[in-house]
């Protein structure tokens, strides 16, 4: 028996700390974008308080970019809320995959924890697998929340466009993080057909729709459908 | 300083509406799936969803230009061999260099 197989359960404080550490590379990429969003909000006429409340209560980056853009254009309130809903619809699918982790947790506590479910939170939580604890969840959540709130407010206070995050390749941080997380889901060549279907659908919808996040829903549905067909094919092979 | 504390009530109403619908998308997934027990095909679909979502998230940006596609391929190659922080930093360095070259 190797030493590795003897695991001592970590204390909640340790779990929280691990969550904070795992979140740091994501924070490095998120802060410049928070700044950028804040400066765009200032341009759209939002005050630092407006922006702070939006980051604190909505706490969903891409939908906030869309909302600020629409506010800048003077869109109707209901249209802005509708756009936020559409951009965040992908959370339904993400949350569904986390359901086993939240089984047995009282509704109120789960409802509060799920308030913090961003793309990054979801991906890190899923990677943690069955060992996921609420302490780890909140380690990630608190770090991201504070970083997002402070960077968006600071960006609004600073006003003008600070810098273009793409100049330092910081926009690639998100891509790299998501690719690393994707590698964790590799289950052999069987993973390939759903992923290729998702990429094809996402690219097609992205090319047809200007902006928004419809391509994420399209990719999820295409990948899920191919996986369902694979499972049906396997079931038939076993029955024969 | 006072302007930064100004609250626009019409914006605040939008923020509250946006916050409510966003929270509902976050709690809705586990709530729905706990009530509709999925069969074998649906389970497989659900199991494939995280990977498919990640692919869909990165595909348009990763394939937007040759430099980014090459850097993305590089990250995929090293992702399972080195810690995540190393892979992310290496990927960002690679993309900055490749964007200058290509």
UniProtKB/TrEMBL annotation, chain A:
It is found in: Cell membrane. It comes from the Bacteria. GO terms for biological process: L-valine transmembrane transport. InterPro entries: Brnchd-chn_aa_trnsp_permease. The chain crosses the membrane at residues 16-37, 49-68, 74-93, 136-162, 168-186. It holds the Pfam family AzlC. The keyword Protein transport does not apply. Belongs to the AzlC family. This is 4-azaleucine resistance probable transporter AzlC. It comes from Azospirillum oryzae.
Automatic annotation (TrEMBL), chain B:
InterPro entries: Brnchd-chn_aa_trnsp_AzlD (IPR008407). Keywords: Membrane, Transmembrane, Transmembrane helix. It comes from the Bacteria. The chain crosses the membrane at residues 12-33, 45-63, 69-98. This is Uncharacterized membrane protein. It comes from Azospirillum oryzae.
């Amino acid at each position: 028996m190797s030493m590795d197989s003897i695991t001592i359960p970590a204390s909640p404080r340790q779990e929280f700390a691990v969550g904070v550490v795992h979140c740091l590379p994501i924070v490095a990429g998120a802060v410049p974008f928070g700044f950028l969003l804040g400066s765009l909000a200032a341009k759209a006429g939002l005050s630092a308080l407006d922006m702070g409340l939006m980051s604190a209560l909505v706490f969903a980056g891409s939908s906030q970019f869309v909302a600020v853009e629409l506010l800048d254009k003077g869109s109707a309130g209901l249209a802005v809320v509708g756009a936020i809903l559409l951009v965040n619809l992908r959370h339904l699918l993400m949350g569904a995959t986390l359901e086993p982790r939240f089984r047995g947790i009282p509704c109120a506590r789960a409802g509060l924890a799920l308030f913090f479910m961003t793309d990054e939170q979801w991906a890190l939580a899923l990677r943690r697998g069955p060992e996921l604890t609420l302490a780890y969840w909140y380690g990630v959540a608190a770090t991201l929340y504070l970083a997002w709130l402070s960077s968006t407010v600071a960006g609004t206070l600073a006003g003008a466009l600070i810098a273009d995050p793409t100049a330092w390749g910081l926009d690639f941080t998100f891509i790299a993080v998501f690719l690393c997380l994707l590698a964790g889901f590799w289950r052999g060549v069987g993973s390939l057909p759903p992923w290729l279907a998702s990429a094809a659908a996402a690219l097609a919808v992205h090319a047809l729709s200007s902006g928004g996040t419809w391509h994420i829903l399209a990719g999820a549905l295409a990948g899920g459908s191919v996986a369902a067909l694979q499972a049906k094919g396997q079931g038939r092979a076993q029955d024969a | 300083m006072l302007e930064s504390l100004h609250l626009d009530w019409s914006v605040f109403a939008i923020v509250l509406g946006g916050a409510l619908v966003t929270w509902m998308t976050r709690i809705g997934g586990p709530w729905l799936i706990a009530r509709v027990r999925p069969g074998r095909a649906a389970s497989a679909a659900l199991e494939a969803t995280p990977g498919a979502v990640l692919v869909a998230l990165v595909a348009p940006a990763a394939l937007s230009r040759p430099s980014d596609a090459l850097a993305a391929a590089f990250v995929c190659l090293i992702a399972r061999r080195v810690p995540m922080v190393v892979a992310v930093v290496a990927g960002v360095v690679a993309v900055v260099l490749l964007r200058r070259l290509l």
